[in-house]
Amino acid sequence: MSDIDTAKSLTGLLNGIAQKAYHNHGEVTEDLLRTELYPDLSPEDFHALHDKMRGLLKSIAMADMDPGQLEAFLTAQMKRQGGGGMSEGQASALSRFWRSQRARVRESLLAQSRWEPGLRGLAWRVDLQTSSGRGPEAAPGGPVALLELELGRPSQVSEYVCLECDEVTVNQVLKKMADIQRSIDTVVHRS
C-alpha cells in the first residue's frame, strides 16, 4: 500500500470511528471498516489498529485539544517506545482529521451530555386580563405576561410550554434572576 493509500485508509478509519462513537451511526461496524478499508489486514491486526485509533481519538476529543495541545500529544505518542507508539503518517492523519472534525465532534459530545431538552426559543407578550373569573360578578384583572417556551433536543421536534404570570409572579422571577446574576458576579470577581 502506498503512503497516499495508507493515509486515505487511516482517514477513512478515523471517520468511521467518529461516525459510530460521536454521530450515532450504529451501522458502521468494525467488520465493515476492516472489509472496506483494510481487506488485507488480519482481523487481529485490524482490531489492534482500530482500538489504538479509537483510544487516541477519544483522548483528543475528551480534552478538546487545540492545535498546540494536539501537536504536543502526537509528538509524545510518536516518541513512545514499543507497540504503543505511532508513526509519523498516523500522527499526520490524526492531525488533519482533528483539524477538520473538531467542531462537529465537540458539538456531538455536548449534545450527548444533555439529559433534558434545552430551551430553543422564547416568545412573550403582556396582555390585559379581561376578567378574573366568570359570571356577572367577575371583575377585570390586571396585566398578565404570556410566555411561550420552545423546548427540545437537536434531533427532535420542539415542544411548547405556555405560561401566564401576573405582576407579582413576574416580579418574583425578576428578583430571582437578579439574585442569580449577583451570585455569578460574586464567583467571577472572586476568581
TrEMBL record:
Example of a GO biological process term: positive regulation of protein ubiquitination
Question: What PROSITE patterns does its record include?
Answer: COMM
CDD domains, per database record: Commd1_MURR1
Q: Which InterPro entries match?
A: COMM (IPR017920), COMMD1_N (IPR033776), Murr1 (IPR037351)
Specify the COMM domain's residue ranges.
118-188
Entry GO CC = endosome
Q: Which family does it belong to?
A: Belongs to the COMM domain-containing protein 1 family.
* Identification of the protein by name: COMM domain-containing protein 1
Organism per entry? Gadus morhua
The gene name reads commd1
